[in-house]
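Technical appendix A lists one of the benchmark inputs used to test multi-chain prediction within the project. The record comprises two sequence entries:
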Amino acid sequence: MIDRTLALQQIESIIGQTLKQPDVCITEQSTAKDIKGWDSLSHMTVMVAIEEQFNIKFSFMEMINMSNVGSMIDCLLEKL
Amino acid sequence: MSLVSVLYLVFLTIVAIAYYAIPQAWKTCLLLIASLGFYGINQGFYIFILLFSIIVNYTLIRLWAAKAAKPWVIAAVLFNVMLLGLFKYIPAIFGFAHNPNGSLFQRIAIPIGLSFFSFQAIGYMLDLHWSGKKTVATFPQYSLFMSFFPQLLAGPIARGKSFIPQISRAKSFDYSCIVAGLRRILWGLFKKVVIAANLAPYTDVVFQNYREHQGLTIILAAIAYTIQIFMDFSAYSDIAIGSAKVLGYELMENFRIPLFARSVTDFWRRWHISLSSWVRDYLFMPLQYQTRAWGKKGMLMATMLTFLLIGVWHGANWTFVVFGLLQGFAISWEILAVRFREQLWKLLPDWLSKAVSNLTVFLFITASAILLRSASIGDAFAFISRISVSTGTVYFGSKQLLIFALAGMTFVFGVDVLKGEMLITEFIDKQPGLLRWSLYIFCIIAILLIGSLRSDNFIYYQF
């Protein structure tokens, strides 16, 4: 069973790889605006990479209602 | 009643005095009456189109709130698209283009602001449905959201989730708020009457008679038009945002120094932000979600369709379609060549890469803007092809007006360089009192002495 800390670490690693930002630092309060390169064009690439890593699917409504990385983890843990 | 008129300033002053004098419970009602009155004065009979849109949209929202059923959302989107089609696209497609002296059908014009309030209505319904929250605005709140006079004619396109909560927030007289609003209005008036209105006679003459002008004049007019349209539209947005601020409302910023953008993607994040963010949230994101299995191809398709809509939003003319597609192709290229572009810019010193990328984007936007100004694609190509003509003298029109506009531009772009990403009101606020007052006096004197009130309409009213 994956916990919040592990989920956060894995998400940080995925975002770092997808956005080519190896030194990126993510917290549960982080939003796309705080992270260099995370914009509307790269957003779906990040989300698909997270879905593939955890083998889950987010619905569109879930995706747009994620206010920060913390709410993304909430949604993700519900599906695991 | 133009936003650039003494009448509008008197109207705003009376509304603001009454607004702060009456109890909170009556404020929404007052703003609603003022907004509908403002639209009625400007648009006469077409106020019934606005009222019809408000009533139908609100009924559909209430029906949705009762059962949260998707068909009501689809009905609301279709209703607004049909309303836009009926006034904006069908007459042009079937040859009933507006003619005040023509047949009954031809006398029907596009109600000013239709594209803006229809997009607001669609956005509000989709926000409600996607959030799943059934907390719906009251009818007066929704009516004010749809008709708020500062933004009614040409945006910024408001979002229900940021505008509606502001309606019920208690508002008392706030000196700093009024000053910030007035500063913004003054800045907008300066851009409109000193720059845009002084450039308009020159661009009008050259674009209307381009076959009589040689290459350098064509290039100058195209550049002048890009600056004119930016000054004109951002001036309208400044006056709208400033007027709302006087009444204690915050509207979305619509421009963030777009002519300093370093890529076309960056440009569209800075130009007409309320429209570009609207299409991003309600069209691009859903499309991108649906096509995400296709990877980059899906993203490119979503990008092209999004910019096609931005183009078509401007009106029923192939020039707007081509304008949208050009933006889509440019951004698709930037997505595909992101690494190549990064490597390329690294070859140059930072200042040079900034200058080259700024200039490239400016020239691309200038070339695209010719399509917005031309009556047809043929006209746009014929205009561009005149660049190769070297015979004849360069036309400057009224040198006096051009010098006024040039001086105004130097001033505005100079302030833009100094303030960077900061908002103009924040920038002015940070200056010492003497400099601040010098700036106000300079702007007022310039508006009165060299400003032109010849063209009091804004270019974006036609969209």
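Chain A has one domain: 4-79. The longest helix of chain A spans residues 4-18. Comparable benchmark entries are summarised in Table A2.
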